[in-house]
Amino acid sequence: MDHHHLYTDSGAGLEKLTEERLRGKDLADDFNATRARDDEGRQLILRELFGSMGDDVWVEPPLRVAYGNHVHLGDSVYVNFNLTLVDDVDIHIGDRVMFAPNVLITTTGHPVHPDLRRDGSQFSAPVYIDDDVWIGAGAIILPGVSIGAGSIVGAGSVVTANVPAGVVVAGSPARIIRHIQDADLQYQYRPPRGLL
To answer: Where does it sit, as one GO cellular component term (predicted)?
Structure first.
């Protein structure tokens, strides 16, 4: 199936896709029902749920997926509460990526004209998040987006376009705020300023 063109993912002849979705949702439900001390049980479920998963991955429940098996995580990924992955096609997440709470990544959208979406038609495009990216709380990553290595997506941002490596983006739609520099190696807490 070519996901760059419009398609539907349910109905006659698509029972296999429906079963694949239900399997992922069942595994996510099992994961979300684990006890806080059951690290081993959660890891076993995640390895069954995701298409691939590196070492030293931590995912805080709850987690929501469309399928789960289209998600590929690198090593040392940290996921905080309420990650939602609409993975109708692949989501690739590199090494040492960090997710703050309430992040949404979607590979799927619908056409603008209502006549084209009446039957549930949709399109899908993979999402790529490179190594060492930090996604802030409540960020939304839209279909087809790539986020370059080391970049930061600010809290509440809506990422509608590719993000180059080594930048901070924020806003809706997200825009480059600044480049990450060697001066950023010197950490200093900066309290919030007054509104401009």
So the answer is: cytosol
